[in-house]
Amino acid sequence: xxxxxxxxxxxxxxxxxxxxxxxxxxxxxxxxxxxxxxxxxxxxxxxxxxxxxxxxxxxxxxxxxxxxxxxxxxxxxxxxxxxxxxxxxxxxxxxxxxxxxxxxxxxxxxxxxxxxxxxxxxxxxxxxxxxxxxxxxxxxxxxxxxxxxxxxxxxxxxxxxxxxxxxxxxxxxxxxxxxxxxxxxxxxxxxxxxxxxxxxxxxxxxxxxxxxxxxxxxxxxxxxxxxxxxxxxxxxxxxxxxxxxxxxxxxxxxxxxxxxxxxxxxxxxxxxxxxxxxxxxxxxxxxxxxxxxxxxxxxxxxxxxxxxxxxxxxxxxxxxxxxxxxxxxxxxxxxxxxxxxxxxxxxxxxxxxxxxxxxxxxxx
Length: 364
Known about the structure:
The chain has 364 residues and is an alpha/beta fold.
């Protein structure tokens, strides 16, 4: 099968992780994968898998942008020249492009809904869900049904999977070596790997840190990622006198290594379609504290495979973190249970096979 994965960009993040896992699985099964994108810092990783990456100027926030309509014709030509069977879209912008592709080619189109959309009038007038829409969690499926009236028969619930061979626990000795490499000698380490944005809630976590350090003066917080919220976060760190406790790391493609130096992974998101970073943290055996929003509750059994907290509440978040740091046995027990849960439920193989079934259904 010749498959196009259409994504606005390939910068580090949840959607790019999903695309990478999917592309790898498709290539391993003998399919030809083409990624049409405006580029990004993960492009070389896709190329190393044998994926064809084609850059097209589609980076825009407006579904009415002339860029999209200008890019439609070279995309149409590429689809015909490469005998593409299915186009798989992953963002609102590419969903619009996919809908246009359907009108000017005979190509089948599938979309994945990775999160929650604002119920703008344009999304109802011009829905662009493709022949089949994949929801990555039950919460997202409910959102599509209730907020956009997408037909139940059109939606396929396929929860995201991750590469479980990539996200592995490490022994304490190795963890110590990795910490030393990052200049993290002594003290507990908290962290989150995500773009720095309002929806990811790093500001709530920084605020919580001012409480956590009163109990644990040597604790460190790693904010791994880049984004528009960084200036505000740095200002908060300075105002709260947290310069010695909060460390910023740019986007890295060694996410597994960054996770393994942590004691506790914290996801204070205000909204989350599923939470791939939570899944990855669980896979390496970390105890996770996360907001009880979106698809996250489907990943965490509170108190057993992680800890759920109310969103937008730095006080409750701080209390949950302190509790895990005070009770190392509990922290370890939750981490082990999280790892077992990940092994049983987060198989990328299952995800890829189910998505292939959807492709075959729309092509036939």
